[in-house]
Amino acid sequence: MADQGPAIGIDLGTTYSCVAVWQRDRIQIIPNDQGLRITPSCVAFNDIERLVGDAAMNVFPMNPANTVFGVKRLIGRRFSDPLVQRDVKHWPFQVICGARDKPMIDVTSKGQKKKCTAEEISSMVLTKMKEIAEDFLGVPVKNAVITVPAYFNDSQRKATRVAGYISGLNVLRVIAEPTAAAVAYGLDNMFSSSEEKNVLIFDLGGGTFDVSILAMDKSTFKVKSIAGDTHLGGEDFDSRMVNHFVKEFERKHRKDLSNNARALGRMRTACEKAKRNLSFMSHTTIAIDCFYDGVDFQCKITRAKFEELNMDLFEQCIGHVDKCLKDAEMDKKSIHDVVLVGGSTRIPKVQQLLQDFFDGKELCKSIHPDEAIAYGAAVQAANLTGQGNPEIQDLVLWDVTPLSLGIREINDSMSVVVPRNTTIPTKKEQGFTTTCDDQTSVTFQVYEGERPKASDNILLDKFVLSEIPAAPRGVAKINVRFDIDANGILTVTATDRTTGNENHIIISNVTGILSKDEIDRMLDEAERFKLEDEELKKNFDAKNSLENYVYRTRAAFFSKNLACELPASEAKKLEDEIKSAIEWLDEHKDIQVDVFENKRKDLESIWNPIVSKF
Length: 614
Ligand code: ADP
Ligand code: MG
Fold this sequence. Notes:
By secondary structure, the protein is an alpha+beta fold. The chain has 15 helices and 28 strands.
């Protein structure tokens, strides 16, 4: 498989994404075009182009309504989901309800209204990560392992695969973020020892919080339990601070900010920065010039105040740790190491609460909180494509099902076949029967979730087993088998035990979640954006080349003192031409490549013969 080219690992984060590759017997975290090892999961649209990553983040204060971030909180969810409703209220960009209750992000791109799905925005971020890797490696990259929170359900995992597909990646596998982080920890800490260890991964990022307990030895990583919250992270801590300061401002200046997206956006950026400062300073100041109605904003905040604003959220994190231990039926004393992952684990209070919970145990900070997940994903990518060394080739990852899976009974109760936290791959069977006399077909509805009423859970799919021989109710014996492979792909098979007649469905394929038309449209758009980006780059290059030529000629004009060397009228003419070329450049920013190229050719034909004489 090595001829397929390099396989990368992508940590597609809510706030930041990171890409890594296995190269020369070690993992390399790949820096982006700015030289940074993490890239904001942010996409901005404006009148001329689409920006992704740092460039998008930088324009956020100027263009908040068209700068999209945090879509991982939307992916694979319905618009009516209360958590989606909560998020859309806070965001400066608009999210509306599309067909089949799908959230659609409403932006203005190149002067035109455009509706994007969360999969589409995520695919733009993935394309950026792919390009970062391609620039670094100098070859096309196709294969990737992408990580998702352990808590992501089937629909969220599927949607992430769709995003990968639209970005032109072959998604080798979607793996859980804490498992990937555990691999990074394992490579650093386990090869020297042969004993089995229980490790708790505490991953607090920008938008999601994940806890996992893994039992691991040198090469086997088995997830014991997972817990967490897909809506808890650094952005919530930022929101608390924003609300605090908005109230403060309104109290002081009697001005209502709540509908001013630009002011709120600038406040959020300032609060996020202040929060980072408070991780290593006891107090800091927020200062925003001309904040609102010409009024400057300046205010101090202490670390203690920040902690007070967020204490309940920090405590929620510890509650999830406790739940995770209970699910794994483990005592906290049996945890050998508590590993910190995610940018928000830099908050001292979070570390202190966690350390106190573990009775003062030293926390493990040896792996990089921003890079560990991409690191582990890249190890897995190398492992799956046969590119790693023997040490990583033996690696076996055992994940667990994040939610219970089952069949809906006639009275709407959920008959669980695979309980939550079951190690995968797995096979489980359960017996069913008919509920009416002479019933010759049964519809099986497969649900995912923890609620006792099936209709309160998520319907994954349904299928029918027919040609059951007519008999009184309860006589037929139907076996239903749930098969989950290492990718989390579920196959449900129903077999009539009398006739051997069988039917099955495979849940978790790429086209399940969106129609083929929708996916085709997204692929077309991705291709269109790619062509437009290339066109724009050519345009920039042509403009730069013309600009360089004009300024070089101007420098030559003055340094060679052409004003004295040339006849006065000719010198004046050349000086005026250079001046007007500079004005022309200022006025023509966004025009066709060939216009720049022709302009350059025209100027060269006039100027080169004059300048080259001196
Ligand atoms: P995600 O995986 O959700 O993309 P990350 O793990 O990259 O998130 O973490 C990003 C979050 O970490 C952001 O909310 C950011 O503000 C926060 N963060 C980064 N550095 C610090 C710090 N020094 N102190 C507090 N929070 C931080
Ligand atoms: Mg993360």
